[in-house]
Structure formats: structure tokens, C-alpha cells
Design goal:
Elements lengths: L7 H8 L3 E6 L1 H8 L5 H5 L9 E4 L5 E4 L5 E4 L7 H14 L9 E5 L2 E5 L4 H12 L12 E9 L5 H17 L14 E9 L5 H15 L4 E6 L17 H5 L32 H4 L25 H17 L8 H38 L5 H10 L24 H14 L3 H18 L2 H17 L9 H14 L3 H17 L3 H10 L6 H17 L5 H17 L3 H15 L5 H17 L3 H13 L6 H21 L12 E2 L5 E4 L10 E3 L11 H18 L14 E2 L10 E3 L4 E8 L6 E14 L21 E3 L2 E6 L4 E10 L3 E15 L21 E11 L11 H5 L12 E3 L5 E6 L4 E3 L2 E11 L5 E8 L5 E2 L12 H5 L6 E3 L9 E6 L13 E3 L6 E2 L4 E9 L5 E13 L8 E13 L2 E9 L12 E10 L7 E13 L2 E6 L8 E3 L4 E10 L6 E8 L3 E3 L6 H27 L7 H9 L1 E16 L2 E15 L4 E2 L29 H4 L3 E6 L3 E4 L7 E11 L5 E6 L7 H7 ...
Parallel strand pairs: 1-4, 1-7, 7-8, 8-9, 14-22, 24-34, 47-56
Antiparallel strand pairs: 2-3, 5-6, 10-15, 11-13, 11-15, 12-23, 15-19, 16-18, 16-20, 17-19, 20-21, 20-22, 23-25, 25-32, 25-44, 26-30, 26-31, 26-33, 27-32, 28-42, 29-41, 33-34, 35-36, 35-45, 36-40, 37-39, 37-41, 37-43, 38-40, 43-44, 46-48, 48-52, 49-51, 49-54, 50-52, 53-56, 54-55
Helix pairs in contact: 4-5, 4-10, 11-13, 12-14, 13-14, 14-15, 15-16, 16-17, 17-18, 18-19, 19-20, 20-21, 21-22, 22-23, 23-24
Length: about 1450
């Protein structure tokens, strides 16, 4: 139970006090009425004695009474109606609400922190009122009148006569049969005569003389002169006299007879008058239903139930108003503080001199009577101990006792006299004697089986035992149990049972037996009174929370039951309070159904109490938590919510739009797209892919696009990226960088994609859905700010808003809505949220197990009429900051500005279409397509560029494209190349042409990734379109390639905010294998073209068809091999086969051999040499062949450059890189590029197609094999990690022996066979010329050593038979590129085959020490045959 203001002893003592009746003459009543009080009300605040009182018990022992209180009431001659009592109790409870600013008690139990009102004043007021308004009954005397005050005014003409009249009246009321009420304690009631004197109007002497006469007539103990009204009420003094009456009058007790004259109450009669229902007026009765639990108390009200409150609350409020007016009138206006003291004194005198002596005398008389009747020798008091300390008679159980509650004793029966004596002792706090008497009476009643009497005696015996000072015996709770059971089950008297429970529960609570108290309270809840059940259940709940280990969930459960009963009793505020307190326990613990029930009830109760905001928030909770309710229930909740919401919005129609809880919006998933929707492809035309909302975000690709854009911007700005550069972002989402304000262009739509989720199992219908925004117009060209216009929702002139008429979200569905805005003015736009009408779909409940949402996909949806207009804000939390130490230690979020675009001035808008663009190519295949550029805006565009990471994939043709006319056959065959018919005689010899790399955009310092699009006049006017050819070359690697093109363009006017725009296109090309080419170059040993100064080389080209047959390629024809270089050119083909065309079927290889010679050195121009195998020459120095060549050259250069760059960085510290090393290295370098041009014959759909293509091989080093496609590197094997720092002593850079051996090219010239007659001459001399050619650009010292190196026998066998004659060593100096011939003689002694390649040649650069001296190897053995003639 909750804490009470009084202790349990005070509570019980105040509940049972001596009752005194008051009978006033009319004149006396008039005097008290001056103070707006009746006589009984006048004395009420002073009825508690301030001092101790003494009296003697029957054994003449002194007995002290502390804190005694008496009750003075006007005589009411008819018992109060049960209905009236119920109405009064209902009012008492409804008026008593928790104080406004009351700080609730915080109880911490486990992981619960509950705010609970520690006290329950409504319960205490109810209890007090209930006990005071209990009708007197015959089986007990506690609320029978002990005495009667007869009050007469001193102003009356004959006061003494008036006293006689009143005395007779009292006698008549007590003794005549016509008055059954009130009840009197004993036949000779104490009469106390009070003379009331009005000081302000009456004569003092007269009053005194009358009082003297009274004293003589009634004795000084029996009368009193009470002077009141010492001040005139209308004096208007400022003196503030305290008003002790108001607190008593608030409680408006039943004894005030006039209370019920003007208070209409309803009695709904039932079969037995005992069950008058008035605390109902509740829903069930109104609906004509019996007031019992047809439904479970926790079941929700039927979804279709009305939201109207019962009429009861209106009655309650009206009674509250009457109380307010009642408390507004001043009480005791004519009384001074002296008068207060006089009244207090009067009550003291009455009690001391009149009441207590009378009670003492009565107790003695009763004791004497009982002793004489029982024939006992001693007084009952001393005897009782003996009787009851011996053998106890076993009490029979209730069920064995016959139902004789109807047994009535005559008033003078000895059993009743014992009871009477016990009650008197109890009233004057003589609990020991009272207990003895109750115990005796109880045994007598049980023997007689007078159950009502027995229960009363048991009840009071238990209370007396508890109240005995010093607690000689424990509280006999089983007495109370028996009493309650008897009252309830046998006597069917719920009022007495309730009193029992109230007393016992309070006693158990004081002993901290909360569990027993709760069980007792719960047992008395029943269907006959909702109010009582509600109050008791609430107290039971408090018992559970006040236990040593609080039972929080039990507390909550019983609070809910109490709330339910309060609701039925019409106590809406109390019901709401109970539910709210219980909610603290259920909230957030996963008890979703219980939470829903509580929220629903709170919503309804708040609605009936016109607390609309609370109602809305409660219903909101039901909808936004993931509800486990069935669809029908959810639908009901939703309708109820909409209904409440509608009422709220109708109260303030012009107020701000309310925030709606449904559907959920996943704010972070909001995407913002700037620009028009993409046009689909039409026929052969394929629009640039660009960006659309249907594409998934890919951080890698978005980084690539950003890099491409930075690349082109830096080229445009001469290598610098401007500080205000902002990469174009077309679609903003949770992954993009949203820290800057995005830029949108005027007149171009902004699409916001909002992700909605419907958590309910019923569909939601959003109608008239549009974006909510705020716009600030600004002109970015002028400096001054525009005026701020907030929320121009209706202002379509600035921003056009597109609304979606109907947007249906099925049950538990996530669905995105794309909402558009059309900016018509520059400025700052802020997208705040969405605004829509939330409604439900008619018949959205599942019928016969068929899900209705199936049929809701198409057509118009029928709303059921209930919809509310509201908004939801889009609030996006930016990314968590994690850069500085401060940000890492605290939680901070950066801004997310995707919903705050800046609208800039108009810009050109480009659309790009690709015509005949292939999706599949062979590796190296060349294909011609067309690109159409369209300017769809209202202003011209210029500076059109395209940038790609794969510039080798496409070309728009070089500057030379115009110079080369197309041959007729080329156009016939639709060849992508420029071709010229060749003269048959020139087959296999090179046809020369030259071109500069600058013509093809690959000049020094250029960025070949950024390509200017050759627009005619360099400007594209509004609405204009232009078509340009574009050649494509299939990438060298097979597989699927995604190639990104970024088109960059600018406006003719410079803008402050947006400098350029870009358009993206991703081409997906699938390439399949074609040819694989390997080539090597080596020095030729032939001596012809001496003038070529040793500059001949052989080029071997090995071509393999690695195409797999699935692609339908029949065969490849090599139609031409071209070379291009600044220093070398192919001269002629040295192939042996006579076949003009080189055909390669699947998996075939062909070897080609060419002779290359040096060409005239040219700094910028490349020499192109074409060796044609067919009858048409492809001009390799023209577009597109040269374009792709130069691009491949650049990519190759980039690749090798990156590798060499890493090495260079290692050498950076050592600046003494020897020039000599470089010179030596150069000797073995070749700079020759081979282009193999081919045709492939493909059969597709029974038609033969001819595809053409080209492969490039870059030859850099003599003797090193080069490939058309770089070989995959083998991964190095795993090695153990070494954890030490390498010693930093780099070896001096030195050329490899291979490079050194290439300094000098040697060749021996001699006859292949020599005939000599050994008979004639034993020695055969053969002249041999040794040709030395300096390959380097420097002067070289050469030393030739002719001595045979080894002396082993094997070597002697080979060499020993011939020797060189003459000098064995020569030292020469060769200038740059010089060729020197040295005449030698070889001497043979007999025939045979000899190897002349024995001279060893050592070379070093002139200015070098011998460190770099190395042997120059011969390329091949020089064999000579010596014949004998």
C-alpha cells in the first residue's frame, strides 16, 4: 500500500470515535449560519482534545486516554441511500488528484527507475469518507450515538422551554417506533444543554441569567454557555482570521443532511436493493450490457468502439465546480480567534465533564449487569484471563456453520450487552478490556451461530489485540480472515467486508507484511463496485512495489487492472494515471503487445480528457514501434490515430503542419539527382550512359571519374587545378562527399529520391506527396543579397514542385518515391522534407485469408476518407569526423549538404549519341563509328574535350585526315583505313612516308588522355548537333573492358559558380583473341652497302593466330607490315616463300624476316615504311593507323617510364652517372616500331565479313624479344622476410658485358673455299679482311689479339693446324661510326675445314681506363674449306 499521512493507530482511532448528536433550535442554527456553517460544522475543527484525559475502569484502575477525538453530527432521521453514498465516494475520489507540482518518488528496482507517487490522497479520502458514511447497524454499536447536544440561542424568548421541546424531540426520535434511524447506544442517552450567545447582537446579562437558571436545573456538569460571533462580518477589517473549516467541508460527509437535498443522483435499480449500482454509470450499463467481465480486463476495447467519454466525467466536473464555489465562500466570518478558543474550551468541557463520566458510568453499569447475570463472583475484567488462558474451544470452520446470519438478538440480550461494553471500551481506548469482551462475545455468537454478530466481534477483537499497548499478543490475522469471509460469503455484506479489509491491510502494512496485505486487497475486488476494486487494486500494486525486494512487474500488472477498473468507474484521470505509471515498467522491454494496449488506452483516455497532444503521442507510439499486432488491429489503431489527429488539426487549422510518424523515412538513404532523366537508345543510336538514379553507387568508379575530371581541368588550366574546383556530382547519396553545397542549374530538374518504409501490416496511402522547401533568391553576378523568402511552397514562379497524386506502400514494404523540383530562379534552395496526406486504403483488412494488397497494385486506390495532412523532415546526419585528435576523442559529425543545392545561372547542356558503336571486337581490331553531339540547352557550348584512361582505344583522327583522299576501293570495302592501290612491281619493298606526332596530339608535354573534339568552328550552338567519325581499336587484352569517357565542355560566358560541365559515358567492350606477335632485331653481318656504315639489321617477326574458333574467324591475312621510327626503316622483305599473301588459319604461325636500315635522322618526324603483301597499300602515316600507333607508343612509354622512374629515384642521390655508361648502353638500343596490319575473314549468319586491325611491337634492344602484348610476369617465389637495414653502398653503375660487347661490330671477309696445291707449296696463305665498325657515338680504342687463347689438346686439334701470319696484336682508334678494314693472312698446312673466328677484339672508350675493356664476340663461326688441288 502507499504511504499514509497518519500512522495505523491514529487511523484506527480516528475511524472509531464516540458519536455525539446535535439538535439545534432554529434560532441557534441561524446564529451559526452567519458563518456559513451549521452547528455540527462549526465545532468540527475543534473536536480533537489537545490534552490527555483520565477515567477509571470497572476495577477502579486509572486509565489514560490520549489524543481523543469526538464526532458531532446533525441528527439525520433516515439512513443514507447506498446510491448517494456511492455518488459521494465517486466525487471524493475524482476531486482528489495528485498535486500539480508534486515530486514523485523515484524507486530503483533492478534495472528499473520508476517515478511513482508515494502517497495516494484519493485513497485516504475515500477511506475516511467510506468509514464516516457507513450506516449504523444493529450488530455493533461503534457508530451509535452516545450523547446528544441540545443547542438553543440566548436570543430566544423562552430558552428553557425551547430546551424542553428539544429534549422531547430527542426522546421521540430515540424511543418511538417511527424512527429506526439514527441508532442510539443506550436508552438513557446523555443530554447536554448548550446555550449559544451571539456576542455582537445579544445581551450579555440575559445570557448569564439564563445560564444560571440552566445550571440549577441541569447541574454544572450538564450545561454550557457558548459565546460566538464576536465580530461583525461586514466590518471589512483587514485582519486575516484562519479558516480551519474548509479542509473538513471539502470532504462533504454524508452526515450533512442538506448535502443531498440539491444533489441529484441516479439509482439504477437491480433485483436486490443491496446491489444498487451507482458507481457505474459506466460504458457497459449504458450499452445495456451486464457489468461483468465478458471480456478479459486487458483486452483492448473493441477497435470500432467510440472515442466519446461516458457522461460521468461531465458529472464529476460539475460536482467539482460546485465544490470550488463552495470553497470560495468564507467560513467563520463573524468569529474571532477568541471565539475559536471558546469553542475549543466548550468541547473540552463537554468531554471532560459530560461525555467521559457518562461513558465511565455506563461501562460500570454494564459490567455489573453482566456479573449479576452470569452469576460470577468477580468482575468480568479479572475473570476473562482465567477463562481464555485455559483450554480453547476449537473454532468451527465457516463452511460447517449454518447460514444463520438472519438471527437477531433482542436489544437487552446479555450477548449484546457484552458487545456494547466492548465497543464503549474500544471507543475510549481501553483495548485490553475491549479485547476480553469481544472475545467473550465472539464465543457466545459462534455458539449461537449468529454469524453477522460473530464476524463483527472477530473483526474488533483482532483490531483490539493489535492496538493493545505493549502488544501482549500477536495480531490475530486469522480472525480478520474469518470475519471477511463471513461478511462476504454468508452475510453478503460487502460494505462491512470492505471495512475489514481496509483495517486489516493497514495493520499488515504497518508490520511490513505487504504480500499478505496485497492478497487481502486483491481478494475483495469484485464486480459489484468498480471504484472500490480500482482503489484496492492500486493499493495492492503499491504493496508489491514496497516489498523488501520490489516486484516491479506485479506492480505494473495490478496498476493496469486498477486503471481498467477506474476507467469503468468513470474515473478517467485516475485511469490515465495508472496506465502511465505502469507504462514505465513495460516500456522498451519487448512486451510489445502490453505496450500497445497501454498506449492505446492512454490515447483513448487522454482523448476523452481533451489532452489531445498526449493522445496523439500515445497513438504514435503504437504505430512506430515494430508492432506484433494482427493486421486488423493495426488498421484499427491507424484509423483511431488519424481520427485523433484530425481533431487536433481542426483545433488549429492554421497552425504548423504536424509531424507524421508514418511511414518511416530512411533519411540517410535519400538520394538527390541533378539533371534530366536519361534518354533511351533509339535504334542504332545509343545515348551516353551518364548517371541515373537506377545505377548503383561504386566508390571506385566515382573516384576514377573524379580523377578524369581533375586531369582535364588541369590541362585546361595549364597544369593547375583551380582552388575553387568542385568535381561534378550528379547523384548524391550516403557514400558521396556531401560536405560542399552541390550546384544545380536553373531550369534543370532536381530529383529527390526518398526511401519510405511501412512498418505496419496494413497498406498506407500517401496522397498529394511533394517536397517541402525553403528558397532564398540570390543573383550570383551582382554583389547585393536578395531578400529571404521562407517556405514559398505555393510560389511556383520560383521553384516548380511536382506532386505524386497517389503513392501506395503495401504492408511492411520499402518503396522509394522520386520527387522533382524545377528551379526557375538562382539562389539557395533548402529541401526540408516531404508533405503529404496520410490515409488508409478502404477494405485493407484481409478477408477470408486473401491478402488484399494483391489487388492493390494498379488503378486508383479508394481511400476510406480518413486522412490527415502532415509533414516529415529529412534530417541527414553527416559523416563522423575523425581527423584531428579532438574529433577522434569526441563524437562529432560533419555537415551533409546534399539537400541544400545552390541554383546557378544557365549553362549549356550536352547530349552525346553513339552510332554503330560495337559491343564486341577482336584484339587490335579497328572499327569506325560515329558520335553525335547535341546541345539541348539555350546557350552555346565550347571547348569540348574528351578524356579517358584508355586513349589507345579510340581516336577522332589526326590533323592529316583531310590531306589523304579516300581511294574508291577503300570506300567500296568500307575500310576504316586510307588505302592506295600499289604497283605490282613494288611488292616487298618499302614505300616511305613521314608524319609528326604533333599532328596526332601526342606532342612533347601533351597529355594524350585529354583529346580535343574537333568541332567545326569550335562552338556548338543551342539546338545544334554535329556528327563526327570515331575510330575504335579493340584492346590488346582479351576479356570485358569498361572504358570511361568523360566529355568536358564550357559555356561561352564565364560563370562565378560553375566553370564547366561534364558528361560521362561508360562503354563496355568484349574483346576476343586474334593474333600474337613476337619480334626480335639483330645485327646483320653482311658487308654490302658499305656506305650504310654498318647500319644493317635483320628484323624477325613471328605471327601466331591464337584466335579460338568460337568467334567464327576463318583465317587472318597479313596484308602489310610497316615500321616507324626516327632512326630506322624497313627496307625490304627477305622472306623465302613466293606466296604473296600470308594466310593464318587457327593456331598457325608465320615467320617473316625483314631488312632494316638507318634512315636520315630527323628530330620530330617519324619515318613510316610500309611493306605491302597485298595489292593495296594502307597509308600507315595517316589516320587512323598512325593515331593508334602514336597512342600505343605513348602508353608503352608511360609503362616503361613508370618502371624506370622507380629505378631513377634510387639513383637520385648519385649524380655522377657516367656519360660513358650511357654511351655504351646506346650502342645496343634500337628504336624501331613494327605495325602488323591484318584482315580477318569472319563468317556470321552465312555472310562473310572482313574485319581489319593492327598490332604494334616496339623493338628497343638488339637481340631482345619484344611482344605485341606484354607477357604476364611470373610472381616471384615467397622469400623469408629479412629484418635488417640493407647497407647503403650502391655499386658503381656499369654497363652489362652484353652491352659492352656491342661497341664494335666485327666481320671477317674471306673466300668460302680455297684450293691450294700442297705438293707444290707446303704452306697455304689465305688473305682475310677483318672489318671493324664502331657502333657508338664516341671514339673507341680497339686492340686485336690474334694469339690462340687456350693450350689444351682439344684446342690444339682445332686451331693448331693454322696460324695467323704477321703481327699478333694491333692497336687502333676508331672514330664515331667509323668502319675500318684490317688485312690479315692465315697460314694452313693441310686440307680441312677451319674456323677463322679466333681473333679476339678488345675495346674501350678512349678516355676510360681499362675497366670497361671487354672482348667483342663474333656473331658466328667463320668457316673456310681448304682443298688440295
Amino acid at each position: 500500500m502507499a504511504q499514509c499521512v497518519q500512522s495505523v493507530q491514529e487511523f484506527i482511532q480516528d475511524s472509531f470515535v464516540p458519536l455525539v448528536a446535535a439538535l439545534c433550535s432554529e434560532e441557534a442554527e441561524r446564529l451559526t449560519r452567519k458563518n456559513n456553517l451549521s452547528f455540527a460544522e462549526l465545532v468540527k475543527p475543534f473536536c480533537r482534545l489537545t490534552s490527555e484525559v483520565h477515567m477509571r475502569d470497572p476495577n477502579n484502575q486509572l486509565h489514560i486516554i490520549k489524543n481523543l477525538k469526538i464526532a458531532v453530527n446533525n441528527i439525520i432521521t433516515h439512513p443514507p441511500q447506498p446510491a448517494a453514498i456511492r455518488k459521494l465516494l465517486n466525487d471524493v475520489v475524482s476531486v482528489s488528484q495528485p498535486a500539480e507540482g508534486l515530486v514523485a518518488n523515484v524507486i530503483t528496482a533492478g534495472d528499473y527507475d520508476l517515478n511513482i507517487s508515494a502517497t495516494t490522497p484519493w485513497f485516504e479520502n475515500y477511506r475516511e469518507c467510506f468509514l464516516q458514511s457507513m450506516p449504523a447497524s444493529d450488530h455493533e454499536f461503534l457508530n451509535h450515538y452516545v450523547a446528544c447536544m441540545l443547542v438553543v440561542s440566548s436570543n430566544e424568548p423562552e430558552p428553557v422551554e425551547q430546551f424542553l421541546k428539544l429534549s422531547q424531540e430527542q426522546h421521540r426520535i430515540q424511543h418511538s417506533t417511527e424512527y429506526l434511524y439514527p441508532k442510539w447506544f443506550i436508552p438513557n442517552t446523555l443530554k447536554y444543554y448548550v446555550l449559544l450567545h451571539d456576542v455582537s447582537t445579544g445581551e450579555e446579562q440575559r445570557a448569564d441569567s439564563i445560564y444560571e437558571e440552566m445550571k440549577q436545573r441541569y447541574g454544572t456538569q450538564g450545561c454550557y454557555l457558548l459565546k460566538i460571533n464576536s465580530r461583525v462580518s461586514n466590518r471589512g477589517t483587514d485582519e486575516q482570521i484562519p479558516d480551519p473549516w474548509s479542509q473538513y467541508l471539502q470532504k462533504n460527509t454524508i452526515q450533512n443532511q442538506d448535502c443531498y437535498e440539491d444533489c441529484p443522483y441516479t439509482v439504477i435499480s437491480n433485483k436486490s436493493s443491496d446491489h444498487l449500482i451507482s458507481d457505474g454509470l459506466d460504458n457497459e450499463i449504458e450499452d445495456g450490457l451486464p457489468n461483468n467481465f465478458k471480456t478479459h480486463p486487458l483486452q483492448l476495447d473493441h477497435p470500432s468502439g467510440s472515442l466519446d467519454s461516458t457522461d460521468y466525467t461531465k458529472a464529476a466536473t460539475s460536482s467539482q465546480d460546485s465544490k470550488k464555489s463552495n470553497s470560495g465562500t468564507p467560513h467563520g466570518a463573524c468569529l474571532t480567534l477568541t471565539d475559536h478558543d471558546r469553542i475549543r474550551q466548550f468541547i473540552q468541557e463537554f468531554t471532560f465533564r459530560g461525555l467521559l463520566p457518562h461513558i465511565e458510568k455506563t461501562i460500570r453499569q454494564l459490567n455489573d449487569q453482566l456479573i449479576s447475570r452470569k452469576g460470577l463472583s468477580r468482575s468480568l475484567f479479572s475473570a476473562t484471563k482465567k477463562w481464555f488462558s485455559g483450554s480453547k474451544v476449537p473454532e468451527k470452520s465457516i463452511n460447517e456453520l449454518k447460514n444463520t446470519s438472519g438471527l437477531l438478538y433482542p436489544p437487552e440480550a446479555p450477548e449484546l450487552q457484552i458487545r456494547k461494553m466492548a465497543d464503549l471500551c474500544f471507543l475510549v481506548q481501553h483495548y485490553e478490556l475491549a479485547y476480553s469482551c469481544y472475545h467473550t462475545a465472539k464465543k457466545d455468537f459462534l455458539n449461537d451461530q449468529a454469524m453477522l454478530y460473530a464476524a463483527g466481534a472477530l473483526e474488533m477483537a483482532a483490531v483490539s489485540a493489535f492496538l493493545q499497548p505493549g502488544a501482549p499478543r500477536p495480531y490475530p490475522a486469522h480472525y480478520m480472515e474469518t470475519a471477511i469471509q463471513t461478511y462476504r460469503d454468508i452475510c453478503k455484506n460487502m460494505v462491512l467486508a470492505e471495512r475489514c479489509v481496509l483495517l486489516s491491510a493497514e495493520i499488515l502494512k504497518s508490520q511490513s507484511k505487504y504480500s499478505e496485505a496485497a492478497a487481502l486487497l486483491i481478494r475483495l475486488t469484485s464486480e459489484d463496485s468498480d471504484l472500490r476494486s480500482a482503489l484496492l487494486l492500486e493499493q495492492a500494486a503499491h504493496c508489491f512495489i514496497n516489498m523488501k525486494s520490489p516486484m516491479v512487474r506485479k506492480f505494473a500488472f495490478y496498476m493496469i487492472l486498477a486503471g481498467h477498473r477506474f476507467s469503468k468507474a468513470g474515473q478517467k484521470k485516475h485511469a490515465l494515471r495508472c496506465y502511465c505509471q505502469a507504462m514505465q515498467v513495460y516500456k522498451g522491454k519487448g512486451w510489445s503487445l502490453a505496450e500497445d494496449h497501454i498506449n492505446f488506452t492512454i490515447g483513448r483516455q487522454s482523448f476523452t480528457l481533451h489532452q489531445l497532444d498526449n493522445a496523439v503521442s500515445a497513438f504514435r507510439h503504437i504505430l512506430i514501434n515494430d508492432s506484433k499486432q494482427p493486421p486488423a488491429q493495426q488498421g484499427a489503431f491507424l484509423r483511431e490515430y488519424l481520427y485523433v489527429y484530425k481533431n487536433v488539426t481542426q483545433l488549429s487549422p492554421d497552425g504548423p503542419l504536424p509531424q507524421l510518424p508514418l511511414p518511416y523515412i530512411n533519411s540517410s538513404a535519400t538520394r538527390v539527382f541533378f539533371g534530366h532523366d536519361r534518354r533511351p537508345a533509339e535504334g542504332e543510336k545509343q545515348a551516353a550512359t551518364h548517371v541515373s538514379l537506377d545505377q548503383e553507387y561504386d566508390s571506385e568508379s566515382s573516384q576514377q571519374w573524379k580523377e578524369l575530371e581533375e586531369q582535364v581541368v588541369s590541362v585546361v588550366n595549364k597544369g593547375m587545378i583551380p582552388s575553387n574546383f568542385q568535381p561534378a556530382q550528379f547523384c548524391l547519396n550516403r557514400y558521396s562527399d556531401n560536405s560542399k553545397f552541390p550546384l544545380a542549374v536553373i531550369e534543370e530538374p532536381i530529383t529527390v529520391e526518398v526511401s519510405f518504409r511501412n512498418p505496419l501490416k496494413v497498406p498506407l496511402l500517401l496522397t498529394d506527396l511533394s517536397l517541402l522547401w525553403k528558397f532564398q533568391p540570390k543573383d550570383f553576378n551582382t554583389k547585393h543579397e536578395g531578400e529571404t523568402k521562407e517556405l514559398g511552397m505555393c510560389d511556383g514562379a520560383m521553384i516548380g514542385t511536382e506532386a505524386i497524386a497517389e503513392f501506395l506502400i503495401n504492408s511492411e514494404e520499402t518503396k522509394v518515391a522520386r520527387l522533382k523540383l524545377f528551379p526557375h530562379q538562382t539562389g539557395e534552395l533548402h529541401i526540408l522534407g516531404v508533405v503529404y496526406d496520410l490515409g488508409t486504403v478502404q477494405g485493407a483488412v484481409t478477408l477470408d485469408g486473401i491478402d488484399p494488397s494483391v489487388g492493390l497494385q494498379t488503378g486508383k486506390f479508394v481511400s476510406n476518407g480518413l486522412s490527415v495532412r502532415g509533414r516529415q523532415d529529412l534530417e541527414i546526419q553527416g559523416p563522423r569526423l575523425n581527423n584531428t585528435k579532438e574529433e577522434k576523442t569526441s563524437i562529432r559529425y560533419g555537415p551533409d549538404r546534399r539537400l541544400d543545392p545552390i541554383i546557378t545561372e544557365e549553362m549549356p547542356l550536352l547530349e552525346v549519341f553513339f552510332i554503330n558503336f560495337p559491343t564486341g571486337l577482336l584484339c587490335g581490331e579497328i572499327r569506325k563509328a560515329y558520335v553525335e553531339f547535341v546541345n539541348v540547352s539555350k546557350c552555346p557550348l565550347t571547348a569540348l574535350k574528351v578524356v579517358s584512361k584508355h586513349p589507345e582505344f579510340f581516336t577522332f583522327g589526326g590533323n592529316t585526315a583531310v590531306l589523304t583522299p579516300l581511294s574508291p576501293s577503300a570506300s567500296e570495302n568500307c575500310s576504316a583505313y586510307k588505302t592506295v592501290v600499289t604497283d605490282p612491281t613494288s611488292v616487298r619493298t618499302a614505300l616511305l612516308s613521314s608524319a609528326s606526332s604533333v599532328d596526332f596530339g601526342v606532342g612533347p608535354g601533351g597529355q594524350p588522355e585529354v583529346i580535343n573534339v574537333p568541332l567545326p568552328d569550335a562552338v556548338l550552338l543551342p539546338g545544334a548537333s554535329v556528327q563526327l567519325p570515331m575510330w575504335l581499336r579493340g584492346p590488346d587484352e582479351e576479356g570485358v573492358h569498361e572504358i570511361n569517357f568523360l566529355f568536358y565542355y564550357e559555356s561561352i560566358k564565364r560563370h562565378s559558380k560553375m566553370c564547366h560541365r561534364v558528361l560521362r559515358h561508360t562503354a563496355v567492350i568484349c574483346t576476343s583473341r586474334s593474333l600474337h606477335i613476337r619480334a626480335t632485331v639483330c645485327r646483320s653481318n653482311a658487308l654490302e652497302d658499305e656506305e650504310g656504315r654498318g647500319g644493317n639489321m635483320l628484323v624477325f617477326v613471328d605471327v601466331e593466330n591464337i584466335n579460338t574458333s568460337e568467334t567464327g574467324v576463318k583465317e587472318f591475312h597479313i596484308v602489310q607490315v610497316s615500321s616507324n621510327s626516327k632512326h630506322w626503316k624497313l627496307q625490304k622483305s627477305v622472306n623465302i616463300s613466293e606466296d604473296k599473301d600470308t594466310k593464318l588459319a587457327s593456331r598457325e604461325r608465320a615467320k617473316l624476316c625483314f631488312k632494316a636500315v638507318r634512315c636520315k635522322n630527323s628530330e620530330e618526324n617519324y619515318t613510316f615504311a610500309d611493306i605491302v603483301f597485298g595489292n593495296e597499300q594502307i597509308i600507315s602515316s595517316a589516320s587512323p593507323c598512325a593515331d593508334f600507333f602514336f597512342q600505343s607508343l605513348f602508353t608503352e612509354f608511360k609503362r616503361t617510364h613508370v618502371q624506370s622512374h622507380t629505378h631513377a629515384s634510387q639513383r637520385a642521390g648519385k649524380q655522377s652517372v657516367d656519360e660513358t655508361v650511357r654511351l655504351i648502353q646506346r650502342c645496343s638500343e634500337v628504336d624501331l616500331n613494327i605495325v602488323v596490319l591484318w584482315k580477318a575473314y569472319v563468317v556470321e549468319d552465312n555472310k562473310q565479313l572482313i574485319l581489319e586491325g593492327q598490332h604494334h611491337v616496339a623493338l628497343n634492344t638488339v637481340g631482345k624479344e619484344a611482344f605485341s602484348f606484354p607477357q604476364k610476369q611470373e610472381l616471384p617465389e615467397m622469400v623469408l622476410l629479412k629484418f635488417f637495414r640493407p647497407e647503403n653502398t650502391p655499386a658503381p653503375a656499369r654497363p652489362t658485358p652484353e652491352q659492352l660487347s656491342n661497341l664494335i661490330k666485327t666481320s671477317l671477309h674471306y673466300p668460302e673455299s680455297f684450293s691450294h696445291s700442297f705438293h707444290q707449296k707446303s704452306l697455304c696463305l689465305v688473305p682475310v679482311t677483318l672489318l671493324l665498325s664502331n657502333c657508338s657515338q664516341a671514339v673507341v680504342d680497339v686492340m686485336i689479339d690474334l694469339r690462340h687463347k687456350t693450350t689444351s689438346p682439344e684446342a690444339l686439334e682445332i686451331h693448331g693446324s693454322f696460324t695467323w701470319l704477321g703481327q699478333t696484336q694491333y692497336k687502333l682508334q676508331l672514330k664515331s661510326q667509323e668502319v675500318y678494314s684490317l688485312q690479315l693472312k692465315a697460314c694452313f698446312v693441310h686440307t680441312g675445314v677451319y674456323n677463322l673466328g679466333t681473333p679476339r677484339v678488345f675495346a674501350k672508350l678512349v678516355d676510360q681506363v681499362t675497366l670497361f675493356e671487354t672482348s667483342q664476340q663474333n656473331s658466328m663461326p667463320a668457316l673456310i674449306i681448304i682443298n688440295n688441288v
